[in-house]
Amino acid sequence: MSFENTTSTANKVLQLLADGECHSGQQLGAMLKITRSAIWKIIHEIKSRYSIPVESVAGKGYRIIGGLNLLHQKTLVNFVEQENFTALNQFILLNSIDSTNNYLEQFIVKGNKTRIACFAEQQTQGKGRRGRTWISPYGHNIYHSLLWSFNKDPGEILGLSIAIGVAVAKTLKNYGVDTGLGLKWPNDIYYENKKLGGVLIEFRASAHDCCYVIIGVGINTHLSEETINSIEQPCTTLKQILNKNVDRNRLAGLLLNELIMTLNEFDQQGLQPFLPRWQELDILQNKSVSLQLQNQQITGIMRGISPRGELLLARNEKIENYLSGEVSVRLV
Ligand code: BTN
Questions:
Q1: Ligand 1 surroundings by CB, under 6 angstroms
Q2: For the residues of 30-58, what is the DSSP string, one character each?
Q3: Looking at the DSSP assignment, which residues form a beta bridge with residue 220?
């Protein structure tokens, strides 16, 4: 197992300011062994690059109002059971990256068994499903990707996106969301009809009996009112739901733990054990939905999922199957 933690000086300053207290330029400079003017420049970089509102308090120094709950490798890993954590080859904590899913692409080496977990504080080009953008401001929310190799034919793991949706919902329940959670096929995470998180799985086939998946999970823990209003669909955050600040390290650790357990279970037993769990969370059951296919839009009544995880749609007095990833579903 190897660890990687990219820590720039700006990141170190952020860690010192994360407590929300006032810190003078002199104090920060002394701690990091750099000059006050270097600190001043870094504060500007933090404001412009990460869009973090660092306040300058006359005669006192700098502070981040409300503080920040940054990710710490040790704290996060404490929430992952040892036997699950040892399944990983590498654990990577990144400061800022275009997309954690894109980042993990480079580690795919044909024929190698690879299991790498990666978290980031910020994504500059976070990806959502169907080419959408995933808003990923610094120091908030969870941006996580997990690279996993399977000794299976790619056709055998198509239902994985269903199992992953169940795993994310379970994580949120373990964190303390008791009621109101639901899944929208295949794996959008909802809380009372508002989107709370999403999953983007990218499959990479290698050979007939080996394939790789990059599982990307985003969970909203805190977004400003302005950001929430700018997102085209209704969405919510854990902070809004629980009415308190979120411990991102605990949430991230619980997520990684649940995903590893899910991948092991899926590897051994396939989708079968996840089907009843998914059905309990299905928010579209028997609802009239509209399906966006490649070139056309169709409507029908949702009738759950098949044993392979396909969406079942009642249409023209028949039940039609649609594969995960082909379509997006909207309530009509
Ligand atoms: C969706 O619901 O549209 C899927 C959102 C997936 C977002 C996560 S955040 C971590 C990972 N990296 C990305 O660029 N996207 C996924």
A1: 99-101, 123, 126-129, 132, 134, 143-145, 188, 198-200, 216-218
A2: HHHT--HHHHHHHHHHHHHHH---EEEET
A3: none
Segment 47-102, tens digit of pLDDT: 988 888 899 998 899 999 888 999 999 999 999 999 999 999 999 999 999 999 99
Dihedral, CA of residue 96, residue 98, residue 100 and residue 104, to nearest 10: -110
Structure tokens at 180: 């109101």
Each residue's pLDDT tens digit, 240-256: 999 999 999 999 999 99
Q: How far is the CA of 128 from the centre of ligand 1 (A)?
A: 5
The answer to whether the beta carbons of residues 134 and 198 sit under 8 Å apart is: yes
Strands (E), the chain: 2-5, 54-57, 61-64, 90-97, 115-123, 142-150, 181-184, 188-191, 194-207, 210-219, 288-292, 297-305, 311-315, 318-322, 328-331
